[in-house]
Amino acid sequence: PGHTRYHRGKESTPLKTSAVTELGRARITATSPDLFMRSGNLMAQWTAIRDAALTVRYGLDCYGYCLLAAGHIDVVVEAGLKNVDIAPLIPIIRGAGGVVTTWDGDPAEAGGDCIAAATPELHAAAMQVVAGARG
Q1: How many angstroms separate the CA atoms of 81 and 115, rounded?
Q2: Contact 95, 3 (CB under 8 A)
């Protein structure tokens, strides 16, 4: 953590994810709830994690991951990502202190259904909700 920096001109600011560890306090984002219907009908999992969160915002795409790295969003949940959608963002999020995996806990570099979270505890909580909603 602390290795990721935002550069603008001569200014350089370290990026740091939030310290949120509980889903009930988490601000989450996804591009669209439609993604979860199109990617293997994952709506039950999405609904469970959405309902457990403090607030949800849609439509941010890759900007949501940048907001996560800067500490303004706590969890990003996506489905059906291509490797080019997620792989470039992983070192930024990890360098800011976050965790990124697939919904199965595998490395996310190849894409798929992914969860990025600000802290390991928050990531584990999100993964637990997704696993519980699978039945």
Answers
A1: 11
A2: yes
